[in-house]
Amino acid sequence: MKRSGLHNLLALGEGFTTEFKRSSTSNLGREICAFANATGGVILLGVTDMGEVSGVKDHNRLKSEVQAIARSAEPPIAVEIESVGEVLAVRVPAQYSKPYSFGGKFFIREGASSQQMSRSEIREFFYKEGLIHFDETPCERFSLADDLTAEVWERFRRRARIPANMEALTALENLHLVKDEKVTHAGAWLLAKDITKFNTSAAVACALFMGTDKVRILDRRGFSEDIYSMIGQVMDWILSKINVEYIIKHVKREERPELPEEAMREAVVNALVHRDYRSTASVHVYLFKDRLEIVSPGGLPAGMTEADLGVKSIPRNPLLFAMLHRMEAVEHIGSGIKRIRNLCREYGVAEPKLEVSEHWFTVVFPRSELPEGGGQAGIPTEAGRDQVEAQGGQVGTKSGPSQEGRESNATQSPTQSPTQSPTQSFAPVDRLLSELEHGEKSSGELRDALNLSHRPTFRNNYLHPALEIGLIELTIPEKPTSSKQRYRLTAKGRDFLAKLEQPR
């Protein structure tokens, strides 16, 4: 440090990264520890509280004493010491083995002073630094006796690919979802019938707005089942509101949403997996005329910066993340943002904008302007109804549900089956049934026929809804994971398909 640098520090006075000490090394360990737990800083020995240089003697002896104090911290703290005239400058660089303690106590820099942390502050510090993961802590509200019903277990067991003959408690303990006979928060979120019973803010709120601001709401939906279910439900809601282009080639109809389905799904998964579940805020999905916003509380996890986005991934909830990967809701570890950008480029639409703050992370998908005569998704216009034009194949644009559909949609269950309204389009299931109309098909054959490469999208939006509603069935029901497994229409499915093909 040059004398000019020292002069500047003295002129600025004590602050978050600067401390003055007149002469002695009393409480020096406390100050070094506090800077190490924060962002680092410099301690000037031989300077009064008023910023006047008083100087210190025998710099060599004092340097040894300072080094000994720094090494006695737990873990030892690296410091840099230099003489600047009569002043001894002790620089504490940013440290990477937080938290640090001195004399068995933890200290943190607050403003221009160093304070001892209380138990609750230590706990919060550990969370903030990613040293404790909330998803791995016990969820006191979850009762194994009352909340882990046979229905809940069977649903989870099937999704997590757990052998049918394995006991529930054994499986959950081996997956680290139960520790010391307590279900972890990750386990509670995946086993929940209503996630808000265990985390009041863990639901997802979706809203469709008229125009480009939040003045007028056209539709509002909330989803609060388990996390795995909410991913599919939120995607179904988004796909029901955005514009879809119908492309008819020969006798097959292809649907092309205005935004890439896989990219939107990746953003929804990221919002639910990486959010801060200790926050009192919920994940929000906002659909405007010109953009889709997916907002997640918590900002970036500890150890990540904006420059890291698309380059590396640090899960805030690693146990939850690992389980959703096992359940194949997450396919590409560590590639979320990069994959979203690549999918948008390949789809021919603008890349999403990322908005990062201390407490929020937002992915904004720009929406393209509608073709002439079209209306905003969710807003009926006569010219915006299904159209068909001859352009090599036949192309149509769906601008959104009718007014009647919107009003009923506000009260429908997120898992409403198409059989409740035989004349209303339920696009993913419709397409799946059409592919099975002429015979059995395997999962791979169905994905190829539907032009779907993303397995979770196929399962969540196509296969599982049709199975749960009873429109299709397995050909080998006693061996659900058999490599020879195929799917076929049930009588109920054929009846629904027949009604769907009737002239409207």
Would you write up a description of this structure?
This protein is α+β, with helices and mostly antiparallel strands. It folds into four domains: 3-128, Schlafen, AAA domain (Methyltransferase, Cobalt-precorrin-4 Transmethylase, Domain 2), CATH 3.30.950; 134-197, no CATH class; 204-303 and 348-412, Heat Shock Protein 90, CATH 3.30.565.60; 417-504, Winged helix-like DNA-binding domain superfamily/Winged helix DNA-binding domain (Arc Repressor Mutant, subunit A), CATH 1.10.10.10. Helices cover 33% and strands 20% of the residues. The chain has 16 helices and 21 strands. The chain has helices at 3-12, 28-37, 59-71, 119-128, 150-159, 168-174, 185-191, 227-241, 261-273, 318-326, 336-347, 403-409, 427-436, 443-450, 455-469, 491-500, and strands spanning 18-21, 41-45, 80-84, 87-92, 101-102, 105-110, 113-116, 178-179, 182-183, 204-209, 217-223, 244-249, 252-257, 283-287, 291-297, 353-356, 360-366, 389-391, 393-398, 472-474, 487-489. The strands form six sheets. The protein has a six-stranded mixed sheet with strand order 11-10-14-15-17-16. Strand 3 (80-84) and strand 4 form a beta hairpin. Helix 8 (227-241) runs antiparallel to helix 9, helix 9 (261-273) packs antiparallel against helix 11 (336-347) and helix 13 (427-436) crosses helix 15 (455-469). The radius of gyration is 29 Å and the shape is elongated. The termini are far apart.
